[in-house]
Write a structure and sequence with these properties.
By secondary structure, the chain is of the alpha/beta class. It has 10 helices and 12 strands. The strands form 3 sheets. Strands 6-7-8-3-9-10 form a 6-stranded mixed beta sheet, with helices on both faces. Strands 2-1-4-5 form a 4-stranded antiparallel beta sheet, with helices on one face. It has a two-stranded antiparallel sheet with strand order 11-12. The longest helix is centred in the last third of the chain and has 17 residues. The termini are far apart.
Length: 252
Amino acid sequence: MIETHALSKRYGDTLVVDGVTLQIPRGGFTSIIGPNGAGKSTLLSMISRLLPMSSGSVLVDGMDVTRTPGDVLAKRLSILRQDNQSALRLTVRELVAFGRFPHSGGRLSAEDQRHIDEAIAYLGLEPLAERHIDALSGGQRQRAYVAMVLCQDTEYVLLDEPLNNIDMHHAAEMMQLLRRAADDKGKTVVVVLHDINFASCYSDHIVALRDGQLACQGRPDELIRDDVLSELYQMSIRVHELGGQRICTYYR
């Protein structure tokens, strides 16, 4: 379980995350939603220790992230950031191999190679394994970065807007892959999403932020409702039952 207690982040006089206390359950798929500027990415970055917190605490399975050695935390929790572009000219295989660094220290073993091969196969990247990242399409490149994160083989997999810059087909494919990672591999997948319909259809648990504060959290059937979403996004949102899913419309 991931727990935050009165977690805050301040930049000068601006409070970006304001005293957020929540629990993200172990296992399954959790989406973090909310309008732009709600603090979603900042929250995820503090949970993963990419960004120092101004106050509060984060516990991952009872471990305080500020006091846990980096190599220990990296074997429990991995993150894919929004700005995940590499300045190095790497092949897909070389990029995915970076996910094994917490385990290998740069000296890849046969076990590390097995994880690399499995991650490449899981994301359907075998035909692209020796291609350079800068020669791939946006969707292919995003799959390679997700493969790197999964190759780290952590209990908790955090992804900050993994659907950025990819089309509908690849976005749906990515969500299906992440859902499978939660179901087949027993991962705890936590994803920052802008698309509330993806959050509705793929999540077990949803966390909603607004103005840096926790607005609400719970199961999709508790949050994907006209009144909750209209208040969260400050616009008229209608929720419809289609094919057993709750689908939101918000066009005027």
